[in-house]
Every structure is written in C-alpha cells, then in structure tokens.
Amino acid sequence: MAPIGVFDSGYGGLTVLKALEKALPGYDFLYLGDNARTPYGTRSFDVVYEYTLEAVKYLFSRNCPLVILACNTASAKALRNIQQLDLPLLAPDKRVLGVIRPSVEKVSEITKNGHVGVLGTVGTVLSESYPIELKKWSEGRVKSTVQEACPMWVPLVENNEIDSEGADFFVEKNIRNILQKDKNIDTLVLGCTHYPLLKKTIKKYVPESITILEQGQVVAEKLIDYLHRHPEIDDRLSKLGQVIFQTTESAENFENKASLFLDRRVEAQTIHL
Ligand code: DGL
C-alpha cells in the first residue's frame, strides 16, 4: 500500500479525512492521531515542530508518498520547516501539505467585503499564519483579518461535551468576542479541524449573513486539484479503497471517539512514535 497519510494531534483531522474519503473514494488513507500528546494548540513552536516531524517520518516509513497535516497548529508551526529543511534531506520525492493554504485560497474566493474572522487554537492564532497568508495570497481581496483563540473548544470536543451547557457558554463567548473585533466580518474560518463538531452551536451565535468555512471540504477540493496538477504523485498512490487508523494512545479509546467524528465504527491500532 502507498496511502495518503493524514495526520492530526488527535481526532480533529478525522473531519478532514471524512471529506477526503468522500472526494477520493478509491484512494487508500492512513490516519494517524497523536492522541498521547494532544493538544498541540498550547505547545511551543519547537515542540509542535518536533512532534509533527516525528509523525511525518513515521508516515513516510509506512510508505505514504503524500502526507496531509490535517491540523492547523501543525500546519502553522511545522509545515514550512518540514517542507524547506527536512523534506529535501529525508525524502525529496515525497510531499507534505497543510490545511492553511487551501483555506486561505478558498477565503479569497468567497469573501465579498474582504473582512475575515479566524477561530483557532492559541498556537495557530499566535503564529499569525492566517493574517500573513491571507495578505500574501489573496491579491488584495482580504482587507482585514481578526482572530480569536478558543482554547476550550478542543477539550470540549475531545471530551464529548459538544452538546453541553459548557460548550454553549464558551462558543457564545468566543463568537461574541470575534464579532466585536470586527462587525463587518463576512467570512468566518473554523481554523481548527476539531471545530466542525461544534458547528450546531456555532451557528446559533453567528449571523446567517456570515459564511462559515469548514476545512474538510475545502482541503478535499484543493487536493483533487493538486493531484491533477501532480500526476507523478497521484500515480504513486495506491487505490484499493482502504483506510487504516492508528493512534499513539489506546486503540479502544480511539475507536470509541472516532465514531463520533465519522458516524461509523472503525478499528484502530496503537503505534509508538
Ligand atoms: N486539530 C488541531 C488544529 O487543527 C488542534 C488540536 C490541538 O490543539 O491539538 O489546530
């Protein structure tokens, strides 16, 4: 097998995997969740880089020609170094892609007034990746980017508290904050792959006039385009329609929680990085 590697610190990347499976049905995927060390969102640049590089090396050792960092925190803090410093030495013929660039391209296509809001982990927000990339790639279409760190949202999702009063409280609070930072936002990016699980609550507090951007579908759409443009990578991907799930924590826990994200039961294996 030569599957597409999909990596996240925990379960969040499953929202991306779900969209990828739908968009690229015959392809093989190897999902790796670093559940033993989640969350990444509050960790330093160096630590996120070190952990992410370990995961990428592992996925390369499992014969993945292409790895998607289905984690904004890892995309913000580790992707550039991995692409520029590590890949040329480790595996020049392999590719590692993130979730920020596709999201930035999509935002630039859909915003009408150029006022964008980004919700993310502390790490993603502090990295300033979204404001920097939106400025760089939107060709002037994005005029203002405000951000809000939502440190409680990942733990709420990871602990299956998505329909609780606690979720309602923190979602309302962070949405209120970001809308106060810019009253003209027309596009709101869910800049963390865990957040789509809270969408029902998020929608309660976001005016209907604002477009909420979920990353799964966007990443899938952009990946299809990427594979068309890079047949040399596409040709190397195996297409048996198989999906393998691996975690650095308990396989049983992973199996129980993953069903929440994927609406189906999966079998997982524990691995060590
Ligand atoms: N799912 C990760 C992201 O997209 C964040 C989870 C974490 O903090 O580890 O940023």
Set out the fold topology.
Elements: E1 4-8, H1 13-23, E2 29-33, H2 45-61, E3 66-69, H3 72-77, H4 79-90, E4 95-97, H5 100-110, E5 115-120, H6 122-127, H7 129-137, E6 144-149, H8 153-158, H9 165-181, E7 187-190, H10 199-205, E8 211-213, H11 215-229, H12 231-234, E9 243-247, H13 251-262, E10 268-270
Parallel strand pairs: 1-2, 1-3, 2-9, 3-4, 5-6, 5-7, 7-8, 9-10
Helix pairs in contact: 1-11, 2-4, 5-7, 9-10
What features would you describe in this structure?
With 273 residues, the chain is an alpha/beta fold. It has helices spanning 13-23, 45-61, 72-77, 79-90, 100-110, 122-127, 129-137, 153-158, 165-181, 199-205, 215-229, 231-234, 251-262, and strands spanning 4-8, 29-33, 66-69, 95-97, 115-120, 144-149, 187-190, 211-213, 243-247, 268-270. It folds into two domains: 4-98 and 217-270, Rossmann fold (3-Layer(aba) Sandwich); 100-215, Rossmann fold (3-Layer(aba) Sandwich), CATH 3.40.50.1860. It has 13 helices and ten strands. The strands form two sheets. Strands 4-3-1-2-9-10 form a six-stranded parallel sheet, with helices on both faces. Strands 6-5-7-8 form a four-stranded parallel sheet, with helices on both faces. It is globular, with a radius of gyration of 18 Å. The mean pLDDT is 96. The chain binds D-glutamic acid. The site of D-glutamic acid (DGL) has 17 residues, from α3.
